[in-house]
Amino acid sequence: MTVKKNKMGDNLWFLLGCVVQFSLGVYPTLLVYVQGAPFFLPTWSILLIGAIAAILVVVSVVTKKSGFKQCFSIIGIFHKPLKQQLQFYTYVFSWIGGNAANIYALKYTTHPEWVQGVMLLVPFFVPILTKITDRKHKIPKVWILSVTFIVATLGSVMVIYGGHTNDQEKDKYAWLTILLSVYSTFSAAVFFVFTARMSRIFKLKPSSMLIGIKLFFIPVCTIMTLALREDWNTYRSLNIKGLMAFLGICVGTHCFARILQLTVIGKVGAPKYSIVQSLRLIANLIFNYIILGKPPNGWIVYVGAALIIVSVTFFLSMRIYLKYKELISMWDPENFFDYPLYFSSTFDESSGNIIIKTIGKKTSNDVYKPLLSKSSIDDKGSTNVMDGKKFKYDTKVSSDDHSGSEDNKNVENEIKNENENKQ
């Protein structure tokens, strides 16, 4: 059975992912614009309106695709043990705190590129936090992580130093902005590390997780905007440009960009999509000049931005390459390039097969029969080649494409008979 890969479709989705990343880079600039003179829009009200708009769009999309019941499957967490509930609450409120820190960092600065430059350090924090929380996790080529992290951090420092001015009135909250940006970056890394774990624990789809977070986020924003007595009359001061910027935040970013991001990740995979996240900094520098009228302040900002972009892109590309290189010996080279690059593999002890799970494809669960025995799988889950032989592609079963079909039943029977004969 052969697989035909729609390369044109994948390329179009990847191009759309580039557009999404670029649009997300405009978000910090828009927040600086609407929170500063002459509008001074209240911070928590912006978050509240954005969250309401986002949940309405997500619920409508999920309802159309999976039914209304699926939207609020997050309610099932209240039937989980208290320990698991506390894990979820910690996860949600770390995300809420990170978002609040991000928007406040942009409130007390006229340099959105500072915040964006620091936020691009998230990909480096993710493997570090994963290693801290899971001792069994291995970071391939630690020296690549170390070198690129140092270079990217140096780039962030250069962007901040180059944008700093001697005007104490404008930069009096510089350290507050930097500290809030670092906290927001750390919070985002925690969010990415624990999203997959929370999804497994509660058996929820990413869209349901997003709805659950927003359901907690809306009451928090409401309480904060009332407690701080934010003045909603400031929205009356919006002119056409201000209104377009506000809609760009609430509708463009919170609704369409975030939802398109989930869709693109489902189509091309998170690793490939993440490669181009440096486009956010490029977009930020461009729109700082267009919207705020502030070009980069000197050559040091350009050099710092270049260091961030190159180091982040190189690090993410190498992570994919190393995973690609690690598993290439497990596949038949003649068929390897017919399959998506982004996948995870598990060993099914009951059948003795390697289960290859691709991301965002109709054929998401493919079963491969290896030329290895169970004894060749060590306790850590790694594989050893026996007698110099490689994994050989034999056939596959798709869980999404009529799992009860005759072809799949024949494959399952064949695997079962082969295992019985071995015993």
TrEMBL record:
> Where are the membrane-spanning stretches?
12-33, 39-62, 142-161, 173-196, 208-228, 240-261, 273-293, 299-322
- Answer yes or no on keyword Transmembrane helix: yes
The UniProt annotation puts the region (Disordered) at 394-423
Question: What are the UniProt keywords, alphabetically?
Answer: Membrane, Transmembrane, Transmembrane helix
* Protein's recorded name: Inner membrane transporter
Q: What is the lineage of its organism?
A: Eukaryota, Metamonada, Anaeramoebidae, Anaeramoeba
